[in-house]
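stage 2 :: seqdesign
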C-alpha cells in the first residue's frame, strides 16, 4: 500500500527486498508525525495601536509537514458575539500576514487569534491577543451606542457616572454646584463624600449640573484598554465603581459581595435592584463586608449570571417601591446557607446617597434599628417575620409596593404583607402591587411574614391583635400621687405624639414627650417637676395627649 505525503514521497507498508525491510513500526511513527497539527510561531501582534486611519499588521510563521490548507485571523470585537474571519496571505517561507482595517478598530476594542488548518484537517489555535487602542479625535464619547447616557446627562439631576478607558488628562476642575456643576466621590473607610480632583479608572462619581443643555463628556485623547479581565479592588463597606470597557460586561465576585446597584433610569431617579452587568459611562454602588475583588470579564465563554441569581440553598425576595417621581428597588430579604439570624456578612446597610426620596429599610430580625436594605437569614429555618419601614420625602404620598421572588424557593413557603396603619393583610403582593397612602410627615410600618401557611395565618392575625384599635390616654396611677405617677396611652399606628402637663390656669408645666413613636402600648412617667426641674406644689394638674387627629386630657391630683 502506498501513501503520498505532502512533499510527494511514497511511503510503503511491509515492503521486503534483499537490501532492506520497512515495517509497521516505521509506518506508525510516520503516521504520528503527520497527524501533528500546524505549528504557529512568531505571532506578531501590536500591543498599542494609535488610531490614525491606518491598518494594523498581524503576522506569524506557520508550518506543517502536511501543508497548510488555511490560515485565518479570528477577529472578535468587544460587545459582539460575532467572529469575523480574516484570511491570512502566505508571503512565502511560511510567513503569513493580514491587515486589520482601520474601520474595524472602534472604541469597543477587539481581541484576535490565529486558526490554521493543515491538509489533513488538523488545526491549531493560538491564544487571544488584544491591544490598547489610543484615540486622539474625540471618538471616546458619552454619546456612543453602548453608552448608558447616549443623550448626555440632563440638567438638575444627580447621576452616577464613570469614565471608560483611560483618559490622557485625568484632571477634574474643582467646582461647586453654584458654579455650574459638581462631582462627588466616596471614601469607603471614612464613609464620607469628598470633591475629587482626578479621574480614576474603575471608580464612579456623583455628578450634577445646572447648564441648559445636557452634558456629553468627550475625551480628546484617551485609550481603550485591552480586553482582558479587569480586577476591581473592593474595600469593606460601600464602594462606587464603574467599568473601563466601552460595552456592557459581566463580572465574577465572591458570594458575600452584593450585586451592584445603580441609580436612575430614563424616566425617573431611584435605586435599581441588583445588576448582572456593568454599562459604559454608568456608575454603580456595591457593598463588600470585607476586603474583596470583583473581576470584570469582557468575554465570557459561558453565561454564569444564572448561577449568581440563586444557588440551591438560598432564596431572595426583592422588594420594590415606586412613587410618581422616584423608585427604590434595592431592598432584599431572604435566606441562604451559612447566614445568621443576626448581623453578618450577608446583611447590607443603607447606601448614603445624595438624593434619597423614598426608602424601604429593615431592622435586622427585630433589633429596632432600621438601617439595612438587605436582611438575609439562615436557610435551615422556614418561618420568620421581617419588620419594614417605608420612609419618604414629604411630597411622596402614594407609593406602590411589589415583590420579585427568586431562587430555591421551598414549596410550602407562603408570604404575606401586614399593613400596620391600615390593619390589612395582603397575600397577593407578589402578583399585584400594593398601593400605600402615606402621611407625608411620618414613616410607614409594614411587616412581612414568611413561612408555612399555618405560621403565616397565625402570625399575621397575632400582629393585628397587638395593634390598638384607637388612640387613648389612660388615667394616671397612682392618683393621687406624690411625686411620681405614670400614664398609659395607645397608638393604632406610628404617630407624632405630644404629651404635656398643665396647671389649673392652663399654663404648660412641662412637655414629657414630643416625638414620633411606633404603634402599640406605651407608658410615660412624670416626677412632679416642671421644665426647670423644680418640684411642683400640691394641686390639680392635667395631662394632655395630642396627635395629628386626636387629643385627650386627664385630670390628676398631686398631694404632698
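stage 2 :: out
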Amino acid at each position: 500500500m502506498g501513501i503520498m505525503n505532502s512533499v510527494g514521497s511514497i511511503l510503503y507498508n511491509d515492503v521486503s527486498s534483499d537490501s532492506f525491510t520497512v515495517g509497521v513500526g516505521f509506518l506508525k511513527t510516520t503516521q504520528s508525525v503527520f497527524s501533528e497539527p500546524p505549528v504557529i510561531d512568531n505571532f506578531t501582534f501590536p500591543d498599542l495601536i494609535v488610531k490614525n486611519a491606518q491598518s494594523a499588521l498581524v503576522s506569524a510563521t506557520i508550518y506543517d509537514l502536511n501543508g497548510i490548507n488555511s490560515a485565518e485571523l479570528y477577529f472578535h470585537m468587544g460587545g459582539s458575539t460575532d467572529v469575523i474571519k480574516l484570511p491570512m496571505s502566505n508571503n512565502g517561507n511560511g510567513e503569513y500576514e493580514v491587515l486589520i482595517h482601520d474601520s474595524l478598530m472602534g472604541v469597543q476594542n477587539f481581541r484576535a487569534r490565529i486558526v490554521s488548518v493543515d491538509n489533513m484537517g488538523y488545526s491549531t489555535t493560538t491564544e487571544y491577543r488584544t491591544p490598547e487602542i489610543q484615540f486622539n479625535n474625540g471618538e471616546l464619547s458619552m454619546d456612543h451606542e453602548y453608552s448608558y447616557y447616549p443623550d448626555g446627562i440632563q440638567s438638575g439631576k444627580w447621576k452616577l457616572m464613570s469614565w471608560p478607558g483611560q483618559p490622557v488628562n485625568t484632571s477634574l476642575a474643582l467646582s461647586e454646584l453654584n458654579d455650574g456643576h459638581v462631582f462627588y466621590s466616596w471614601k469607603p473607610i471614612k464613609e464620607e463624600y469628598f470633591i475629587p480632583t482626578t479621574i480614576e479608572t474603575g471608580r464612579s462619581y456623583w455628578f450634577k449640573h445646572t447648564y441648559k443643555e445636557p452634558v456629553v463628556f468627550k475625551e480628546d485623547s484617551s485609550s481603550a484598554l485591552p480586553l482582558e479581565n479587569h480586577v476591581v479592588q473592593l474595600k469593606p463597606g460601600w464602594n462606587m465603581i464603574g467599568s473601563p470597557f466601552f460595552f456592557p460586561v459581566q463580572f465574577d465576585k465572591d458570594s458575600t459581595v452584593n450585586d451592584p446597584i445603580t441609580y436612575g433610569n430614563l424616566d425617573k431617579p431611584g435605586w435599581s435592584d441588583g445588576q448582572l452587568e456593568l454599562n459604559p459611562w454608568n456608575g454603580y454602588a456595591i457593598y463588600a463586608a470585607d476586603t474583596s475583588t470583583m473581576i470584570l470579564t469582557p468575554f465570557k465563554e459561558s453565561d454564569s449570571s444564572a448561577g449568581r441569581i440563586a444557588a440551591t440553598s438560598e432564596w431572595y425576595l426583592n422588594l420594590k417601591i415606586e412613587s410618581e417621581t422616584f423608585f427604590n428597588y434595592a431592598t432584599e430579604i431572604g435566606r441562604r446557607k451559612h447566614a445568621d439570624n443576626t448581623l453578618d456578612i450577608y446583611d447590607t446597610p443603607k447606601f448614603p446617597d445624595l438624593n434619597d426620596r423614598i426608602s424601604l429599610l429593615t431592622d435586622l430580625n427585630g433589633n429596632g434599628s432600621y438601617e439595612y436594605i438587605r436582611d438575609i437569614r439562615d436557610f435551615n429555618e422556614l418561618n420568620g417575620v421581617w419588620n419594614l419601614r417605608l420612609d419618604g420625602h414629604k411630597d411622596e404620598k402614594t407609593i406602590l409596593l411589589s415583590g420579585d421572588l427568586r431562587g430555591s424557593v421551598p414549596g410550602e413557603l407562603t408570604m404575606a404583607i401586614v399593613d400596620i396603619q391600615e390593619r390589612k393583610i395582603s397575600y397577593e403582593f407578589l402578583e399585584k402591587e400594593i398601593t400605600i397612602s402615606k402621611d407625608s410627615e411620618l414613616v410607614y410600618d409594614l411587616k412581612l411574614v414568611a413561612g408555612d401557611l399555618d405560621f403565616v395565618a397565625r402570625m399575621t392575625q397575632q400582629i393585628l391583635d397587638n395593634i390598638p384599635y384607637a388612640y387613648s390616654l389612660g388615667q394616671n396611677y397612682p392618683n393621687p400621687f406624690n411625686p411620681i405617677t405614670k400614664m398609659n396611652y395607645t397608638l393604632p399606628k406610628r404617630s407624632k405624639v405630644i404629651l404635656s402637663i398643665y396647671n389649673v390656669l392652663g399654663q404648660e408645666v412641662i412637655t414629657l414627650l414630643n416625638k414620633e413613636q411606633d404603634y402599640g402600648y406605651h407608658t410615660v412617667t412624670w416626677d412632679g417637676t416642671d421644665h426647670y426641674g423644680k418640684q411642683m406644689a400640691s394641686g390639680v394638674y392635667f395631662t394632655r395627649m395630642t396627635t395629628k387627629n386626636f387629643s385627650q386630657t386627664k385630670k390628676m391630683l398631686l398631694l404632698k
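stage 3 :: structure notes
- The CA atoms of residues 130 and 227 lie 6 Å apart.
- The radius of gyration is 35 Å.
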